[in-house]
Write a structure and sequence with these properties.
It is a single chain. Strands 1-2-4-3-5-6-7-8 form an 8-stranded mixed beta sheet, with helices on both faces. A hairpin with a 2-residue loop joins β1 and β2. With about 210 residues, it is of the alpha/beta class. The chain has a single domain, classed as Rossmann fold, CATH 3.40.50. The protein contains 6 helices and 8 strands, in the order βββαβααβαββαβα.
């Protein structure tokens, strides 16, 4: 079931054991094809998924023009607002595509959420491997799953294997995948297969987390 509720899109049953709050990446909104497919796939596996937007993306809808992403404090505040709106950290899992997943991981310990799922983490800007976005990941206590293409320009397997990441983080690699999990045509795999594999891995990870209170 897919519903538009105020400023969110909700997929899955209201009485599902698990609720995943899911944020978009820097350039595409909450109803992008990628996030829609992920949300539907997880809902089919018994997980309620709540998609939402950061203020800058909401403004793009109302003003019909592009604008730069909000600064980090605004993004973090929006995440914390959504966590509280859906019952508080112990009741939710948080995650997102790229930017959305990165900010989710930044508020996870503070909000005491059950877990984090990142669909393509932006470890560094493309072509700038020295500008790492990993400091907070070194001490992350919340269980986290990062789903990453091996040739993602925001962090390839070779890049990431050298980072001192927290033992609470598990990375599932999608062979040949880019930032959207699309592999080269010659690989024999498809983007659809990789996205499906990411959905399966995310669902399995969420099911391993302790049940929410009550």
């Amino acid at each position: 079931m897919n519903q538009l509720e105020q400023d969110t899109i909700v997929d899955g049953a209201a009485d599902a054991r698990d609720t995943l709050l899911l944020a978009h990446g820097a350039g595409a909104p909450m109803d992008s094809p990628f996030l829609a497919r992920v949300a539907r796939g997880l809902a089919e596996r018994g997980i309620r998924v709540v998609r939402f937007e950061f203020p800058y993306m909401a403004r793009r809808r109302t003003e019909n023009r592009r604008g730069a992403p909000d600064r980090e404090p605004v993004l973090r505040a929006r995440w914390l607002e959504m966590v509280e709106r859906f019952g508080g950290g112990p009741r939710v899992v948080v995650g997102g595509k790229s930017l959305g997943g990165r900010i989710a991981s930044m508020v996870a310990d503070e909000a005491r959420v059950r877990g984090v799922v990142c669909f393509g983490y932006p470890f560094h800007p493309p072509g700038d491997r020295e500008r790492l976005r990993t400091k907070h990941l070194e001490a992350l206590a919340t269980p986290a799953l990062i789903l990453q293409g091996t040739r993602d320009p925001f962090g390839t397997r070779e890049d990431v294997e050298g980072y001192p990441l927290s033992p609470s983080i598990r990375i599932e690699w999608l062979e040949g995948g880019d930032h959207s999990f699309k592999p080269p045509a010659r690989s024999g795999a498809t983007e659809a297969q990789h996205v499906s594999a990411a959905i399966e891995a995310a669902a399995a990870f969420i099911r391993t987390l302790p049940s929410p209170p009550g």
